[in-house]
Each structure stands twice: as C-alpha cells, then as structure tokens.
C-alpha cells in the first residue's frame, strides 16, 4: 500500500489472501485504519485550458520585475471587534444595540431585551402575546 502497488483496500485484501492470510474486506479496512491509512476522495478542481495557461504566463512575465514599492500594503485583519445585537420584525428592522465589552451574559441579554427589544415592540405597536421568538 505504501509503495503504491496496492491502490485500494480490496487490493490489500486480495494480496493478503495470496500470502495465506484470508480476511474480509472490512477487516482489511480496519487494519488500514489502525495504521492511520484512510481513503480520501480526490478534490475536484477546474481544468486549466491553454487560454488560462497563456494568460497566467503573460501576467507573470509582465510582473516579474516588480519590487516591494509596486505593491500596496493592506491591513489583513482588523484591530478590534464590534459585537452587535439586533432584531427583525414583520414590520421592519428593530433597534440595534452594541455590546461594549464583547461578552454576552444573561445580565447583558436581559438588559437588551428590556431596552432595545422593548423599544422595537413599542415602536411598531407589536403585542408580546402574539409575537413569536
């Protein structure tokens, strides 16, 4: 299997039978799994056409002498986190609320429900008894 001669678990099972070790197909799979050999599905990828290859080659030749001053530096990730709570009603969007310390616990959630959600319900004239959450 490791040398590439045996491609499948069925090949392993048949080879072991030839060597005098008969076993089921499932046993062959179990043995392969025990040594951490697993089947993998080949990843699908688009085929490169001649047009793609020529375009890539032309781009590479055009830009082969680029130096760092040709490249704009960009920020790859933000420096902070913004956490929001919001709701949507059948009448339209509700009030949003920023969660400042980045942690949502029961006290913060109850406060939001008592303020932002309550304000939204009052703004649209919605009834608590007929609303679904």
TrEMBL record:
<dbReference type="GO" id="GO:0003677">
    <property type="term" value="F:DNA binding"/>
</dbReference>
<dbReference type="Pfam" id="PF01498">
    <property type="entry name" value="HTH_Tnp_Tc3_2"/>
</dbReference>
<feature type="domain" description="Transposase Tc1-like">
    <location>
        <begin position="7"/>
        <end position="64"/>
    </location>
</feature>
<dbReference type="InterPro" id="IPR036397">
    <property type="entry name" value="RNaseH_sf"/>
</dbReference>
<dbReference type="GO" id="GO:0006313">
    <property type="term" value="P:DNA transposition"/>
</dbReference>
<protein>
    <recommendedName>
        <fullName>Transposase Tc1-like domain-containing protein</fullName>
    </recommendedName>
</protein>
<dbReference type="GO" id="GO:0015074">
    <property type="term" value="P:DNA integration"/>
</dbReference>
<dbReference type="InterPro" id="IPR002492">
    <property type="entry name" value="Transposase_Tc1-like"/>
</dbReference>
